[in-house]
Amino acid sequence: MAIQDLNQEVLNLVRKHYPQIAERTLQEDIAQVGKVMHFRAGEMIMDFGSYVKIVPLIIKGSIKVSREDEGGNELFLYYLQPGETCSMSFTCCMMNKKSEIRTVAEEDTTVIGIPTRYMDEWMSRYPSWKNFVMLSYDNRMLELIRTIDSIAFKKMDERLLDYLEKKAEANNSRTINATHQEIAYDLNASREAVSRLLKQLEKEGEVELGRNRIELL
Amino acid sequence: MAIQDLNQEVLNLVRKHYPQIAERTLQEDIAQVGKVMHFRAGEMIMDFGSYVKIVPLIIKGSIKVSREDEGGNELFLYYLQPGETCSMSFTCCMMNKKSEIRTVAEEDTTVIGIPTRYMDEWMSRYPSWKNFVMLSYDNRMLELIRTIDSIAFKKMDERLLDYLEKKAEANNSRTINATHQEIAYDLNASREAVSRLLKQLEKEGEVELGRNRIELL
DNA sequence: CACCCCCTGTGACCTTCATCACTGCCCCTT
DNA sequence: AAGGGGCAGTGATGAAGGTCACAGGGGGTG
User: Which pLDDT does position A98 carry in this prediction?
Assistant: First the structure.
């Protein structure tokens, strides 16, 4: 595929999925330096502790963002969807810091990867890029606060239901394919607790359970 | 006090406490529109659900930032110290949204209040303002993630110690003046649990307890 | 001084959830 | 068809921490 074709592809994707990126010259800059990248469902995009080299503009699919502490405890934070980007990338790259989070493709996912060195310049030059970045930060902060609410104030049954709803939304399907153990990791809970709570939800008619499968009703 | 004197006061404060705000014209802009504001220890600066009208540059003292959910559950998030600002303000104001947090003066506190309408323009015009804002966001995100770590992965005794350390730092004193009930609110715990854990810490020689007073050893 | 309010200490009990141990079953492989 | 590995269900037990009840003490106020 020739360079011009690739540029045109990126240009079209940006125009279609990021209408808020308004300046034509910015769109063209993105088409110049952005690369279309594909990740398979389950593929790790960036691990905790690694250095950030690109900022992803998500085009298709969804990305799961998790936190892991030194002891190996894991906790799901939020999903990134098409039209969104990873705020953690911005200053991670601006300051050349290690990532504090882990990102994994939830479905087969397509992103436009932008080398981090352009971020700063575009912030000053393009108002719509500045707004985009600021809005991203704000949305992520809000999402983190919602996560805190959930952990601090809610009990496991409610957290589990919230989690299932979000996962269903991220996968565009009321059927969730996951083992109880995987869910337990994401909620930082025990597998047995998740099993029991799911059973309870099934009795209440909220879900239907199968092997590797949860149906939201 | 004449206008010129006030401007000069703000100018001096900015230069002294915010060396990273480098552009002389930006310093002067801040001096033009910024107002020195004082808050007494314990005074509420902004409540949950109110609209944000100013962005505060903290000069002296410290500000406690908390979250409260619909049910009235409360949770301490972090302290803002001199040289810092409230990231939540930026887009709250840019989008005219209600505040998601509550801020209370921890000590007697002085800030420079900047009307929110200047934020956006300065972001584009002054690189050091843009960097300042981005760094603030990044620091706050990190602080929120640390808070999540704490709630999700740690037990109450460790959270309590962390809390006491932060409170001591915010007050520049190893002696903390607070009731067990107040601490319990901040940790979203019960007063009895806090009392028992403090007693335990006293037995271990970590603290010394008095009425309305905790001495960190 | 006497009173009273607020703060602290402590026991008893309960809920939530982690942990351990084991069973059974689905489904894949050989 | 037989075996086996991964997944789900379930009981027993215990730790952390919430809730309730109440006792005691310090310090300010009338």
Answer: 84
